[in-house]
Amino acid sequence: MSSMAVQNLYRKKRTSSWFYFLLPSIAIMLVFFIYPILLTFYYSFTNLALTGEAAKELKFTGFDNYVRMFQDPTVRISIWNTLVFLIGSAVIGQQVLGFLIALLMKHKNKHFRRVIGTIVLAGWVTPEIVCALCLYSFFGDEGTLNAILAFFGIPVVAWLYTVPMITIILANIWHGTAFSMLVFQAALDDVPAEIEEAAVVDGASRWQILTRIILPLIKGTLTTNMMLVTLQTLGVFGLIYAMTGGGPGTSTTTLPIFMYNQAFVNYQLGYGTAISLLLLLLGIILSLFYIRAMKE
Protein backbone atom coordinates (compact mmCIF):
# COMPACT_ATOMS: atom_id res chain seq x y z
CA MET A 1 0.00 0.00 0.00
CA SER A 2 1.40 3.38 -1.01
CA SER A 3 2.06 6.17 1.46
CA MET A 4 -0.67 8.29 -0.17
CA ALA A 5 -3.25 5.53 0.37
CA VAL A 6 -2.16 5.18 4.00
CA GLN A 7 -2.55 8.92 4.54
CA ASN A 8 -6.04 8.91 2.97
CA LEU A 9 -7.09 5.97 5.14
CA TYR A 10 -5.77 7.73 8.26
CA ARG A 11 -7.61 10.93 7.38
CA LYS A 12 -10.84 9.04 6.75
CA LYS A 13 -10.55 7.19 10.05
CA ARG A 14 -9.77 10.40 11.92
CA THR A 15 -12.79 12.16 10.37
CA SER A 16 -15.12 9.29 11.27
CA SER A 17 -13.84 9.24 14.86
CA TRP A 18 -14.64 12.95 15.24
CA PHE A 19 -18.13 12.26 13.93
CA TYR A 20 -18.67 9.61 16.61
CA PHE A 21 -17.68 12.10 19.31
CA LEU A 22 -20.23 14.58 17.92
CA LEU A 23 -23.10 12.08 17.92
CA PRO A 24 -24.21 12.78 21.55
CA SER A 25 -24.31 16.53 20.88
CA ILE A 26 -26.21 16.00 17.64
CA ALA A 27 -28.71 13.72 19.39
CA ILE A 28 -29.29 16.27 22.16
CA MET A 29 -29.81 19.04 19.59
CA LEU A 30 -32.30 16.93 17.65
CA VAL A 31 -34.30 15.85 20.71
CA PHE A 32 -34.33 19.05 22.76
CA PHE A 33 -34.08 21.76 20.10
CA ILE A 34 -34.95 20.74 16.53
CA TYR A 35 -37.84 18.41 17.41
CA PRO A 36 -39.64 20.92 19.73
CA ILE A 37 -39.34 23.64 17.07
CA LEU A 38 -40.77 21.38 14.37
CA LEU A 39 -43.56 20.26 16.72
CA THR A 40 -44.37 23.86 17.60
CA PHE A 41 -44.43 24.77 13.92
CA TYR A 42 -46.88 21.92 13.25
CA TYR A 43 -49.15 22.77 16.19
CA SER A 44 -49.40 26.37 15.01
CA PHE A 45 -51.40 25.08 12.04
CA THR A 46 -53.84 23.13 14.21
CA ASN A 47 -56.74 23.81 16.59
CA LEU A 48 -54.86 22.31 19.54
CA ALA A 49 -56.59 23.24 22.81
CA LEU A 50 -56.76 22.04 26.40
CA THR A 51 -60.52 22.32 26.82
CA GLY A 52 -63.66 22.45 24.72
CA GLU A 53 -64.58 20.69 21.50
CA ALA A 54 -61.14 21.26 19.96
CA ALA A 55 -59.47 19.29 22.75
CA LYS A 56 -61.28 16.10 21.67
CA GLU A 57 -59.94 16.00 18.13
CA LEU A 58 -56.80 17.61 16.72
CA LYS A 59 -57.48 19.17 13.31
CA PHE A 60 -55.29 20.84 10.75
CA THR A 61 -56.65 24.37 10.27
CA GLY A 62 -54.11 25.81 7.83
CA PHE A 63 -53.32 29.49 8.29
CA ASP A 64 -56.36 30.22 10.48
CA ASN A 65 -54.23 30.92 13.57
CA TYR A 66 -51.98 33.29 11.63
CA VAL A 67 -54.91 35.12 10.05
CA ARG A 68 -56.47 35.47 13.48
CA MET A 69 -53.18 36.66 14.91
CA PHE A 70 -52.65 39.47 12.41
CA GLN A 71 -56.29 40.56 12.76
CA ASP A 72 -56.07 40.65 16.56
CA PRO A 73 -55.45 44.23 17.77
CA THR A 74 -53.91 42.88 20.98
CA VAL A 75 -51.10 41.34 18.92
CA ARG A 76 -50.16 44.75 17.54
CA ILE A 77 -50.27 46.20 21.06
CA SER A 78 -48.08 43.34 22.30
CA ILE A 79 -45.52 43.88 19.55
CA TRP A 80 -45.36 47.59 20.34
CA ASN A 81 -45.02 46.92 24.08
CA THR A 82 -42.29 44.36 23.38
CA LEU A 83 -40.29 46.85 21.31
CA VAL A 84 -40.71 49.62 23.91
CA PHE A 85 -39.64 47.27 26.70
CA LEU A 86 -36.74 45.99 24.58
CA ILE A 87 -35.40 49.42 23.63
CA GLY A 88 -35.95 50.94 27.06
CA SER A 89 -34.50 48.19 29.22
CA ALA A 90 -31.95 46.50 26.94
CA VAL A 91 -30.77 48.78 24.13
CA ILE A 92 -30.72 51.95 26.23
CA GLY A 93 -30.89 50.87 29.86
CA GLN A 94 -28.63 47.86 30.35
CA GLN A 95 -26.22 48.70 27.53
CA VAL A 96 -25.65 52.34 28.46
CA LEU A 97 -25.74 51.93 32.24
CA GLY A 98 -23.53 48.82 32.13
CA PHE A 99 -20.96 50.65 30.00
CA LEU A 100 -20.99 53.74 32.24
CA ILE A 101 -20.45 51.67 35.39
CA ALA A 102 -17.61 49.73 33.74
CA LEU A 103 -16.03 52.96 32.49
CA LEU A 104 -16.21 54.62 35.91
CA MET A 105 -14.60 51.55 37.48
CA LYS A 106 -11.82 51.33 34.87
CA HIS A 107 -9.06 53.19 36.73
CA LYS A 108 -10.26 52.58 40.29
CA ASN A 109 -8.45 50.39 42.81
CA LYS A 110 -9.40 46.76 43.27
CA HIS A 111 -11.21 47.32 46.59
CA PHE A 112 -13.51 49.94 45.09
CA ARG A 113 -14.20 47.73 42.08
CA ARG A 114 -14.92 44.77 44.32
CA VAL A 115 -17.47 46.66 46.44
CA ILE A 116 -19.28 48.32 43.52
CA GLY A 117 -19.18 45.13 41.46
CA THR A 118 -20.74 43.14 44.32
CA ILE A 119 -23.55 45.69 44.70
CA VAL A 120 -24.36 45.65 40.98
CA LEU A 121 -24.07 41.87 40.77
CA ALA A 122 -26.62 41.46 43.56
CA GLY A 123 -29.44 42.29 41.15
CA TRP A 124 -28.17 39.91 38.47
CA VAL A 125 -27.70 36.85 40.68
CA THR A 126 -31.12 37.34 42.28
CA PRO A 127 -33.69 34.97 40.70
CA GLU A 128 -36.09 36.72 38.37
CA ILE A 129 -39.18 36.03 40.46
CA VAL A 130 -37.45 37.27 43.63
CA CYS A 131 -36.32 40.37 41.76
CA ALA A 132 -39.92 40.95 40.61
CA LEU A 133 -41.25 40.67 44.18
CA CYS A 134 -38.58 43.08 45.46
CA LEU A 135 -39.40 45.67 42.81
CA TYR A 136 -43.13 45.14 43.34
CA SER A 137 -42.61 45.95 47.01
CA PHE A 138 -40.53 48.98 46.05
CA PHE A 139 -43.05 50.42 43.54
CA GLY A 140 -46.24 49.27 45.34
CA ASP A 141 -48.83 51.70 46.71
CA GLU A 142 -47.46 51.20 50.21
CA GLY A 143 -43.97 50.38 49.03
CA THR A 144 -40.56 51.80 49.79
CA LEU A 145 -40.61 54.50 47.12
CA ASN A 146 -43.91 55.95 48.29
CA ALA A 147 -42.72 55.79 51.90
CA ILE A 148 -39.70 57.89 50.94
CA LEU A 149 -41.92 60.35 49.07
CA ALA A 150 -44.31 60.60 52.01
CA PHE A 151 -41.40 61.29 54.37
CA PHE A 152 -40.51 64.38 52.34
CA GLY A 153 -44.14 65.45 52.03
CA ILE A 154 -44.46 64.50 48.35
CA PRO A 155 -47.81 62.97 47.27
CA VAL A 156 -47.59 59.23 46.73
CA VAL A 157 -48.06 57.74 43.27
CA ALA A 158 -49.58 54.43 42.17
CA TRP A 159 -46.54 53.59 40.07
CA LEU A 160 -47.72 50.16 38.90
CA TYR A 161 -50.95 51.68 37.57
CA THR A 162 -49.94 55.12 36.31
CA VAL A 163 -46.56 54.26 34.71
CA PRO A 164 -46.46 50.43 34.60
CA MET A 165 -44.17 50.23 31.57
CA ILE A 166 -41.57 52.44 33.23
CA THR A 167 -41.64 50.28 36.36
CA ILE A 168 -40.97 47.02 34.50
CA ILE A 169 -38.27 48.70 32.39
CA LEU A 170 -36.50 49.93 35.54
CA ALA A 171 -36.90 46.50 37.14
CA ASN A 172 -35.31 44.75 34.16
CA ILE A 173 -32.49 47.30 34.06
CA TRP A 174 -31.73 46.65 37.72
CA HIS A 175 -31.89 42.91 37.17
CA GLY A 176 -29.70 42.66 34.06
CA THR A 177 -27.23 45.56 34.04
CA ALA A 178 -24.52 43.55 35.79
CA PHE A 179 -24.10 41.27 32.76
CA SER A 180 -23.31 44.24 30.49
CA MET A 181 -21.03 45.69 33.17
CA LEU A 182 -18.96 42.51 33.32
CA VAL A 183 -18.69 42.25 29.54
CA PHE A 184 -17.64 45.88 29.14
CA GLN A 185 -15.30 45.70 32.11
CA ALA A 186 -13.39 42.86 30.45
CA ALA A 187 -13.30 44.74 27.13
CA LEU A 188 -12.10 48.00 28.70
CA ASP A 189 -9.36 46.21 30.62
CA ASP A 190 -8.01 44.94 27.27
CA VAL A 191 -7.67 48.47 25.85
CA PRO A 192 -3.90 49.21 25.90
CA ALA A 193 -3.09 51.90 28.44
CA GLU A 194 -0.23 53.11 26.21
CA ILE A 195 -2.70 54.31 23.58
CA GLU A 196 -4.66 56.36 26.10
CA GLU A 197 -1.46 57.80 27.58
CA ALA A 198 -0.23 58.79 24.14
CA ALA A 199 -3.56 60.50 23.42
CA VAL A 200 -3.33 62.44 26.69
CA VAL A 201 0.19 63.56 25.78
CA ASP A 202 -1.11 64.73 22.40
CA GLY A 203 -3.72 66.86 24.18
CA ALA A 204 -6.82 64.72 23.65
CA SER A 205 -9.73 65.31 26.01
CA ARG A 206 -11.52 62.52 27.88
CA TRP A 207 -14.42 62.74 25.44
CA GLN A 208 -12.07 62.38 22.46
CA ILE A 209 -10.34 59.41 24.07
CA LEU A 210 -13.72 57.78 24.65
CA THR A 211 -15.22 58.40 21.21
CA ARG A 212 -12.11 58.06 19.03
CA ILE A 213 -10.09 55.40 20.84
CA ILE A 214 -12.06 53.34 23.36
CA LEU A 215 -15.38 52.91 21.53
CA PRO A 216 -13.79 51.97 18.15
CA LEU A 217 -11.56 49.41 19.88
CA ILE A 218 -14.46 47.67 21.66
CA LYS A 219 -17.15 48.06 18.97
CA GLY A 220 -17.21 44.29 18.47
CA THR A 221 -17.95 43.80 22.16
CA LEU A 222 -20.64 46.50 22.02
CA THR A 223 -22.46 44.72 19.20
CA THR A 224 -22.09 41.24 20.71
CA ASN A 225 -23.37 42.39 24.10
CA MET A 226 -26.25 44.21 22.44
CA MET A 227 -27.30 41.02 20.66
CA LEU A 228 -27.09 38.89 23.81
CA VAL A 229 -28.97 41.39 25.96
CA THR A 230 -31.63 41.90 23.27
CA LEU A 231 -32.34 38.18 22.91
CA GLN A 232 -32.40 37.73 26.68
CA THR A 233 -34.81 40.64 27.16
CA LEU A 234 -37.02 39.48 24.31
CA GLY A 235 -38.02 36.42 26.32
CA VAL A 236 -38.53 38.08 29.73
CA PHE A 237 -41.73 36.69 31.23
CA GLY A 238 -41.60 36.09 34.98
CA LEU A 239 -40.52 39.62 35.86
CA ILE A 240 -43.42 41.25 34.01
CA TYR A 241 -46.00 38.64 34.97
CA ALA A 242 -45.20 38.87 38.69
CA MET A 243 -45.16 42.69 38.77
CA THR A 244 -48.11 43.66 36.55
CA GLY A 245 -49.50 40.48 34.97
CA GLY A 246 -49.44 42.34 31.64
CA GLY A 247 -51.76 45.06 32.95
CA PRO A 248 -53.37 47.32 33.74
CA GLY A 249 -55.37 46.22 30.71
CA THR A 250 -52.80 45.50 28.03
CA SER A 251 -50.39 48.33 28.92
CA THR A 252 -47.52 45.92 29.73
CA THR A 253 -48.63 42.91 27.71
CA THR A 254 -45.58 41.84 25.74
CA LEU A 255 -45.50 38.92 23.29
CA PRO A 256 -44.39 36.34 25.92
CA ILE A 257 -47.21 37.47 28.24
CA PHE A 258 -49.80 37.41 25.46
CA MET A 259 -48.58 34.00 24.28
CA TYR A 260 -48.91 32.60 27.82
CA ASN A 261 -52.40 34.03 28.26
CA GLN A 262 -53.64 32.53 25.01
CA ALA A 263 -52.00 29.14 25.52
CA PHE A 264 -52.44 28.50 29.25
CA VAL A 265 -55.14 30.92 30.42
CA ASN A 266 -57.49 30.67 27.43
CA TYR A 267 -56.24 27.11 26.71
CA GLN A 268 -55.77 27.83 22.97
CA LEU A 269 -52.44 26.06 22.49
CA GLY A 270 -52.55 26.21 18.69
CA TYR A 271 -52.99 29.96 18.72
CA GLY A 272 -50.35 30.31 21.44
CA THR A 273 -47.77 28.39 19.41
CA ALA A 274 -48.44 30.65 16.41
CA ILE A 275 -47.67 33.67 18.62
CA SER A 276 -44.51 31.95 19.86
CA LEU A 277 -43.31 31.59 16.26
CA LEU A 278 -43.89 35.32 15.78
CA LEU A 279 -41.65 35.91 18.80
CA LEU A 280 -39.07 33.51 17.33
CA LEU A 281 -39.21 35.36 13.99
CA LEU A 282 -38.63 38.68 15.74
CA GLY A 283 -35.59 37.23 17.52
CA ILE A 284 -34.19 35.87 14.23
CA ILE A 285 -34.60 39.25 12.50
CA LEU A 286 -32.83 41.08 15.32
CA SER A 287 -30.05 38.45 15.39
CA LEU A 288 -29.43 38.79 11.65
CA PHE A 289 -29.32 42.56 12.03
CA TYR A 290 -26.68 42.33 14.78
CA ILE A 291 -24.66 39.70 12.91
CA ARG A 292 -24.55 41.95 9.85
CA ALA A 293 -23.52 44.89 12.02
CA MET A 294 -20.71 42.78 13.51
CA LYS A 295 -19.41 41.89 10.03
CA GLU A 296 -19.41 45.53 8.98
From TrEMBL:
Keywords assigned by UniProt, alphabetized: Cell membrane, Membrane, Transmembrane, Transmembrane helix, Transport
GO biological process, alphabetically ordered: transmembrane transport
Residue intervals of the ABC transmembrane type-1 domain: 80-290
Location of the protein in the cell: Cell membrane
Similarity comment: family membership: Belongs to the binding-protein-dependent transport system permease family.
Cellular component aspect of the GO annotation: plasma membrane
Annotated SUPFAM superfamilies: MalF N-terminal region-like, MetI-like
Protein name: Sugar ABC transporter permease
Membrane in keyword set: yes
Topology in the lipid bilayer: Multi-pass membrane protein
Species: Paenibacillus chitinolyticus
Coarse class of the protein's main subcellular location: membrane
Transmembrane region(s): 21-43, 79-103, 115-139, 145-171, 222-243, 269-291
